[in-house]
Amino acid sequence: MREARFVHLSATVKFSRLNKDATMRSRYDDPSFNPAGVALPRFGGPTYALRFRLLRLFWMAAWLLLAAWTPPQLRRWRNALLRIFGARIHETATVHAKARIWWPAHLVMEDYASMGPGVICYNVATITIRSFASVSQRAHLCTGTHDVQDSTFPLVSRPIVIGANAWIAAEAFVGPGVMVGEGAVLGARGVAARSLEAWTIYVGNPAKPVRARRPEAGAAHALAS
Ligand SMILES: CC(C)(COP(=O)(O)OP(=O)(O)OC[C@H]1O[C@@H](n2cnc3c(N)ncnc32)[C@H](O)[C@@H]1OP(=O)(O)O)[C@@H](O)C(=O)NCCC(=O)NCCS
Measured from the CB, is residue 213 less than 6 Å from ligand 1? Predict the structure, then answer.
């Protein structure tokens, strides 16, 4: 079971345990939220309850002070910090110091998964990056959108999965609910609003398939040879 291979610091009191419910829910998704007399986000109110906003402030301050300036070699240190805040991240995964993670408890990264500089990981819903998948510089993984047909313009969030050996190239955009198939490629500045087939190269906006990719390009073949 791959989950079992995730490393957890046993000596660390996980932040997500201190916080009884580390799942950030917008006020629209919170069953206990009573909108009577409280401004909705469309009318200047906050999207998240005060508790969540404070937790996220704490997370952003921690990353800024302890990780955002660190050299590439300190990836294990950054992984440990992400884990404290609830990320499930393999010890061989890499998150660049200049990547921006919205909420670590909504992040899963498997072995050798990587996120380059300037990546925007807007994970209001869970983002999973599977083994050997790469997300290049300034790509945007965006799990949030709005219901544009609703007068209150509520936040809607859907998870993203980047399959094993897939590559999201520089400045590409992956939208809410997109499943990127194993070994798929989304070319530089491509826009994926729909899921991408495995071992297929996509370019453009909206992303269209241009050719197949050889499954032999997967990391397992390099390891076996
Ligand atoms: C997607 C990519 C991997 C495709 O490479 P490839 O398989 O060698 O494909 P080609 O270069 O032969 O291009 C195939 C077609 O797609 C077009 N194309 C390639 N990349 C494109 C892109 N990002 N956006 C739009 N069109 C693109 C080419 O113009 C070509 O069109 P044509 O057949 O009409 O001439 C590559 O173009 C790319 O985007 N690389 C990412 C670079 C990057 O992000 N670097 C940063 C990290 S190191």
Answer: no
Q: Is residue 188 within 6 Å of ligand 1 at its C-beta?
A: yes
Write phi, then psi, for 224 (nearest 5 degrees). -75, -25
Determine if ligand 1 sits within 6 Å of the CB of residue 191: no
3-state helix, strand, coil in the chain (%, to 5): 25, 25, 50
Edge-to-edge strand ranges of the sheet holding 191-192: 100-101, 120-122, 140-142, 173-174, 191-192
Which residues does the chain have with pLDDT short of 70?
Answer: 1-22, 35, 37
164 and 132 in contact (C-beta within 8 Å)?
A: yes
The predicted model scores a pTM of 0.90
**Ligand 1 pocket check for 203: Cβ under 6 Å:** yes
Ligand 1 atom 14: residue of nearest CA: 210
Protein residue whose Cα sits closest to atom 6 of ligand 1: 201
pLDDT for position 19: 53
Domains of the chain, by residue range, sit at 72-224
According to the model, what pLDDT value does residue 15 have? 56
The CATH number assigned to the domain with range 72-224 reads 2.160.10.10
